[in-house]
Amino acid sequence: MSYIHQLFQLQKLDTEIDEKKKRLGEVLKAQKEPPALLAMRKRAETAAIELQKWQTNHQDLTLEVGSLSTKAKNSEDRLYSGKVTNPKELADLQQEIEALARRKAVLEDAIVEALVMVEEAEKEKTAADSELETAVTQWEAQSGHLKTEQNELALNLHKLMQTRKTRAATIDAAALREYDELRQQRNGLAVAGLRVNMCLGCQTTVSANKVREVDEGHKVYCGGCGRLLAAV
User: Fold this and answer.
1) d(CA 164, CA 181)
2) Are 3 and 171 in contact (CB under 8 A)?
3) Which of 36, 113, 117, 167 is the most exposed place for a label (fewest CB within 10 A)?
């Protein structure tokens, strides 16, 4: 087997490796969650935050109302205990009780509003969670085959790389260096097949003399793309 033919076999192997690497990249990218699913996750997160906010607000208001009720009761107990006889102090107690009652009324209205908001936030969170769960289930079902393909590609690439290493070891070092340089310069294709009199790398017609030299196993470069030519 001529070294040109060896390089051509290596080229076919490298082309297959490149294709599988490209496909693996596509498969990995395709497994990323789509924008629609990300938007659903965002909605569910926002709904959870909103519900927590209103639950906390409702709890804080309820605690404040409880505190005001305690203060009002203490003031009323003192007002009607008979222990306070100073008219000004009695008037101050009465004003305090009235102020606490007004503040309590405002807070109770806010509690009702907060409770309504909690109920609405609970409905939104339930709807968002349900929609997200359904979407995730569908996405996992759709992307399951991609994970399988990813594993298969990774395994095949490992085998191909091992095969390449073995084949490259049998090729002359200088020839291999030139091959690698051409691969970098010619978009991954260093050796092009020659079918009859056409370069399969650039579709250029090759002269009869060059065709004969290729058939004889000599090193011949395509005049169109500069790649090494190998008979197929």
Assistant:
1) 17
2) yes
3) 36
- DSSP calls for 103-156: HHHHHHHHHHHHHHHHHHHHHHHHHHHHHHHHHHHHHHHHHHHHHHHHHHHHHH
Residue in the structure block whose two tokens are 């056409």: 198
75 in the same domain as 105:
yes
Instruction: Tell whether 138 and 205 lie within a shared domain.
Output: no
Q: Tens of pLDDT along the chain (232 residues)?
A: 588 999 999 999 999 999 999 999 999 998 899 999 999 999 999 999 999 999 999 999 999 999 999 999 999 998 888 888 898 999 999 999 999 999 999 999 999 999 999 999 999 999 999 999 999 999 988 888 899 999 999 999 999 999 999 999 999 999 999 999 999 999 999 999 999 999 999 999 999 999 999 999 899 999 999 999 999 9
Place of tokens 């260096």: 177
SS3 183: helix
**Is 18 within 8 Å of 188 (Cβ atoms)?**
yes
Contact 50, 122 (CB under 8 A): no
Residue 53 domain boundaries:
31-144
Instruction: Count the helices and strands in the chain (H runs, E runs).
Output: 5, 3
